[in-house]
């Protein structure tokens, strides 16, 4: 139904609006401004029942959005992450992902569709031409903008159509809850996990390359050997998580060359074990200089002295490398005498 089908007396009085400067094309001005076409009233402008119908449609869309957001949260809490469903034509997919995606999409779609329907059917659609003006606004222009803004707010009927206003605020207020719920996936909190590795008293030092436990005679002076705790296998589910903390390197130094008293006590016949994880930002240390007993991190060149308690002698690392206390068991294998006594890796203890 267009305004042409409506009796003249039902049409609202035409508002006074500037329709732009209309001019006629001539030789001097071949690009004449034809001005705006005549304004056509919508059915909602002249029929209050149609306006009410549109209002109810908009409110329904906002309400469906609210329900979809609630459905998103309910799906997140109740659907098993391992459950899958068949959806044509995609095939088998995760039920949780499907439910979350559907609810989130529906919630967003309904907010958008409600806003568009509201704007197209109920807000004023009178076209207004605004003349170009200098970029810097004069006080009069600013006052006009504020007046126009107030007029626009009034024409949007936000105050009058309380049902739309309230359901829209409800939909917009509820929707961010979806994001809040997803914060749960950042967890669980690490608790004390970063303070400990799986090294413990009696765990044998196993060569990372041969997968064999080491005896002191296997470690030559000047060599660098990477070790892992006994029982940690590469096909373990948690291997990467655990080795990222427990990776350790051992070197053998003449006991006379060990400068740090505690280091000497925690070593076995000059064999010292240190965390392989750089205390700067956690790269694995891999370069050893046997003459100086320095190890170098390839990422940012932090250098640690393994003959002096793993002290930092160069680079951005802020802490010495943690040392693992070792000994030998009754069968003659090298074993840990406990866990590292401080968290390994990048300066965690500054926060702990
Ligand atoms: S991570 Fe080792 S120096 Fe930066």
UniProtKB/TrEMBL annotation:
Domain Rieske: 271-335
InterPro entries: QcrA_N, Rieske_2Fe-2S, Rieske_2Fe-2S_sf, Rieske_Fe-S_prot, Rieske_Fe-S_prot_C
GO annotation, cellular component aspect: plasma membrane
Transmembrane segments: 58-79, 85-116, 163-183
Signal peptide: none
Record's subcellular location: Cell membrane
PANTHER family: CYTOCHROME B-C1 COMPLEX SUBUNIT RIESKE, MITOCHONDRIAL
Family: Belongs to the Rieske iron-sulfur protein family.
Role of this protein: Iron-sulfur subunit of the cytochrome bc1 complex, an essential component of the respiratory electron transport chain required for ATP synthesis. The bc1 complex catalyzes the oxidation of menaquinol and the reduction of cytochrome c in the respiratory chain. The bc1 complex operates through a Q-cycle mechanism that couples electron transfer to generation of the proton gradient that drives ATP synthesis.
Name under which the protein is recorded: Cytochrome bc1 complex Rieske iron-sulfur subunit
Annotated source species: Streptomyces spongiae
